[in-house]
Design brief:
By secondary structure, the chain is α+β, with helices and mostly antiparallel strands. It has a domain of about 120 residues: T-fold (Roll), CATH 3.10.520. It has an 8-stranded antiparallel beta sheet with strand order 1-2-6-7-10-13-14-15. Strands 3-5-4 form a 3-stranded antiparallel beta sheet. It is globular. The chain starts with a helix and ends in a 7-residue tail after the last strand. The N terminus is likely disordered.
Amino acid sequence: MPTLLKSKITDSSLRLIITLFLFFILSLLLLSGCADKQASVQISDTRLLLDTFCTITVHGDFGAEELENILDEAFALCAELEALFSITAPGSDVWRINHAGGEPVTVDNRTIEVICAGLEYGALSDGLFDITIGRVSRLWDFSETSAEQSVPDGIALSEALATVDYRRVVITGDTVRLENPDAWIDLGAIAKGYIAHLIAEFLSAQGVSGALIDLGGDVVAVGNRQDGSPWRIALRDPFGSAGEWLGVVEVSGASVLGSGTYERQFEVGGERYHHILSPFTGMPVDSDIVSAIVITETAVLGEGLSTIAVLLGSERAYGLFERVPDGLIGAVLVLEDGQRLEFGDIVIHNG
């Protein structure tokens, strides 16, 4: 009996030890999972690119160094695309197209994509949005630090206007040709939105949990904030000073972009001139819209729609929004008289 009793006690103890050991291992795994979640980090950086301050914020279940490398790659992508689309940098795709004398130029596929988007917006706006406005836009200087700000000479402006016609851009495979050898394309009205879109795609592919991309006011939200809530984007008041806002919108996986006549401007002889130019007159467009802010599924759509809205004016902008088939979530237009018009699914919170 003593021997049998000893055997039973040993077996029970063994089972207890095994149970406790398994519980211990399971506890370690659970604690490890909690530690991973607690290790989720967020980093942010601001760099001067695209002639503006660009800020990218990312968070995810990565080590801090790995997340910093992802952020570096995102900024490198921004610089790479800027080098393709710049109208002034010798050797860029746009520069080579503009200096090819009407001959076809082989370019990067991403350049083809952004040009095609620009041509679509040309058709959507009945020619008011025209990427071949390059000769006209180069006659103006809206940079804040410039001492050369002036209204272009009438003759030079007329000559430049004669080169504007988006319908004469020919794309064949991976080549672009300007039928008018004197024409220049300028992607400035659409490039930032496209670049922000590609950066968002890159970050999503890297597996980040969330990101906020702000390229000088063109904002793209990837996922949500670290706490799981939507990103909160402040909408600037065009009549207020810096830091004054119309309100805040909350977005997840969407873009918030705006265009306005208040952003880049100068005065000559008491007359104010802004940077949104009409391809028909070469002068700043006469619009009752001071600011057009759109929320879209993709930034490249938002960039185009916000600029076209200003070019069209408020009455025609509503018609534009109604015929955009997909991707437009909402919009807010601020008019010269201070009136605010809202379209679609947009909720503006105070603070």
